[in-house]
Predict the 3D structure of the following.
Amino acid sequence: MSAARNEPTSTADTTGEPTLAEDAALARELADATGALLLELRDDTGPGRDREYRGDAEAHEFLVGALQRHRPDDAVLSEEGTQDPAPRRGAHRLWIVDPLDGSSGYGRGGDEWGVHVALVVDGALAAGAVSLPARGELADSATVAPLPDTPVDPERGLTITVSRSRPPVELRRLAAVFPVRTVALSAAGVKTLAVVDGEVDAYLHSGGQYEWDNAAPAAVAVGAGLRVTRLDGSPLPFGADDPYSPDLLIARPAVHDAILDVLLG
Ligand SMILES: Nc1ncnc2c1ncn2[C@@H]1O[C@H](COP(=O)(O)O)[C@@H](OP(=O)(O)O)[C@H]1O
Ligand SMILES: [Mg+2]
């Protein structure tokens, strides 16, 4: 992909590190630009595996190339990049990106796919953005609107979004305590923004994922005041040699507490 595509004009301050707001703005602009590339590619190709593979490869090439130009000193972990941990081990600043999350749905032609761009500083999530181009949604950790921490209504129960292909086994334990309605969606960013937008109460996943699947969604969710943890209540891992990420729960604090009370009780 050519470097002529619209990219942010801001660059890192050479006298010091970019601010979190600058990093969040860069994440947003690169997620948006990568999403525009994927929309164009989608419109130029027929549905199927070829579109899926080209989407993964071309989005990766564009996004990682742009990050290297804007933040040349930073390390990058991309789903489509090298899996060798040596170049990123111990990095002070590590970008974790999924150039195309929900790639099989992208190949088929639905709207449940997105672009994830996140920054981890010294092992802690610092900034991130999620673009859902086919849904016209774009959110970043610095400017996302806060979600009110409304208490759980025990009569109404909880609406929980889950993987379309791999729904979590924990649902059964929750359904024994609350009325639970599930909303199956593809792609981690799609599910997370459904929580951020207040369309559902929680996103629950178990059975595995990778850091690129949840880093940017988690950053946006935390920016909106949501709580993001593993199902045992511990923080999500970021920057490990093995990017496997076993499970997660994303919800506003009142809902997060109510769900963990059941799962840990
Ligand atoms: N059990 C599992 N093991 C590995 N990856 C998983 C997984 N469940 C979900 N994922 C990944 O998490 C992302 C969202 O999945 P889902 O839509 O099922 O919730 C997808 O990323 P990709 O589309 O980037 O591969 C998918 O591959
Ligand atoms: Mg993914």
